[in-house]
Amino acid sequence: MLKKLIVFFIFGLILIYIINSKYVYIYFVSTVDNIIFQDWRYYIDALKCKALGSVCDTFNYGKILFYLPYFNEIDYFYNHVAPIFLILIFYTIIFKLLPLNYNSDYLLLFLVCFNPSTILLIERANIDIIVFIVLFIVSYSNIYLINYVLINFIFLAKYYPVTFFINFLIENKKRKINKSIFLLSSALLICFLFLLINHNFLIDFFNNSGLSKAGLHYIFSIKTLPKIFKYLFDLNYIFLLVIFLFLFIYLVKKIYEYITNSNLLLNLDLFSLNLKLFIIATNTLLFCFLIFSNYFYREIFLILTIPLIYELKKNNKNIFFKSFYFFILLRYCFLFLYGFILLQKTQYHINEIRIYTNIFLGFTFLKGLFDFVLMSVLTSMIVFFNIKIINLINAK
Fold first, then answer.
1. What is the pTM of this model?
2. Is the residue at 267 inside a domain?
3. Residue 25 resides in a domain
4. DSSP secondary structure of 169-193
5. Angstrom distance (rounded) from CA 124 to CA 31
6. Which structural domain range is residue 346 located in?
7. Residue 383: what are its φ and ψ, rounded to 5°?
8. 378 found inside a domain
């Protein structure tokens, strides 16, 4: 415990130093108008605008966030204290969850805490931090009323956490499945009614969702490789996307068959903390990976899958999970190079036509390939667990 506290304190000092010294913008991520916590301030500015009754720009989150109070006396707390407090909770969860049994485990901890995708999330104080914290709480807690409120709130705040509703089915081992289905159904109904009442706001959100799409920079999506091939060979983007989707399904199928034939995931308790974290986090990652052009800070949910992967690596003699664990470490190491390349000159213009540099395209291709393989393995595992949950419902 003492060693953990010392490392936590040291990591905190490093984080403060690289942000205050602006090294974060030299080695990790690009700046947005030299304003730290830019995404968080976007939300607070919108909340302030709404409270003052002014004409506001399109709000790129769910309307339920407007129900949080705002007045001048708490402006400093919202803008300065709240994001730091959330970041502190975020890192505390990481230190609690990641195994630190051996000195080599601290390498993983360092890579998780300081890789560019995590640093980008922290530097911008994106609301995905709150989603991450809520995911941890609902997985850890068996108090259904708390989970009920949090899941409804976070879905209505960001929409993509629709995957969190699965928690009702694996929340409490002692609860009858009929009650779990009732809680799930009633939560969905409440959210549907809220969205129906505020349908104009929802339409505006999706009409303007392009404001938050990643291009080829800082991207985490199945769309990465199709975008690169479209740029290089001027092929039809939809055609390429379909091809890569079929390749993804084929690879998932092959890995799934290997996992099931080797009995690698048998006898795991669906209601254990590590597996609940894995199920919700991986379903969330998969949903975002397939649907959106995400900024790569959404990869933070990968952190919540590591405890189970580490457990499987440790307790399973098969080399599969040891190799996958090493792959995750390698990918985190690669992100440092990828992030640094993005800080260099990545494009130029000839006759007003944008030309990407070869080194940028090469590293972005590798990033897309790493993501493709990572999500193929995780998807093959989550398919196995989702089927177990479906069987649990059918056995009622």
1. 0.95
2. yes
3. no
4. GSS-TTS-HHHHHHHHHHHHHHHHH
5. 9
6. 2-9+30-394
7. -60, -40
8. yes
